[in-house]
Write a structure and sequence with these properties.
2 copies of one chain form a homodimer. With 67 residues, chain A is of the alpha+beta class. Helix content of chain A is 58%, strand content 13%. The structure holds a DNA duplex (30 and 30 nucleotides).
Chain lengths: 67, 67
DNA sequence: TAAATATTTATCGTAAAACAATAAATTTTT
DNA sequence: AAAAATTTATTGTTTTACGATAAATATTTA
């Protein structure tokens, strides 16, 4: 399974969902769903915005775990 | 921008596109497009299959580069 | 270098899913 | 308890993956 670790990065950056939302320019509902792994796909443009806002790499946000 | 490094992983694993296609169970046309960065989004289920087939992490496949 | 094989590109159609807008529910903070 | 933040839910629109297929191109092999 693929795990989304946006929450981990938010904690590291001491950033709120509201703040992240402003930076990426999506609706808060949307950001919340991504953060909580409620999406089945992700646009690369969105991943790019997340990486830019959180100053990190896709690998910091996405994780693969067997089983 | 987000760069897709499936080609790098294929080289590391000495694996062909045909072989990868069989492992992930998508059409070859599709795998080829992903490999060559011709997609604008990716399903997490597909990313998962790629990671499993290439025995790697999302971070090995996806890379964020500024500008 | 000709043939075979592998890969890429293109087109069309369908299904999946992001995302916006909005509102309500829930949780957290003050 | 009130305010603020976050999550969840609903509906509609738009985007895009992905399949099927075929053609074009590139690569490998005999």
């Amino acid at each position: 399974m693929i795990i989304i670790n946006v929450d981990v990065m938010l904690a590291k950056r001491k950033m709120s969902v509201t703040e992240l939302t402003e930076l990426v320019g999506l609706t808060m509902a949307n950001v919340s769903q991504i953060k909580n792994g409620k999406v089945k796909a992700i646009k690369l443009s969105t991943l790019e915005k997340l990486c830019a806002a959180l100053n990190c790499q896709p690998g910091d946000i996405l994780e693969y775990r067997r089983q």
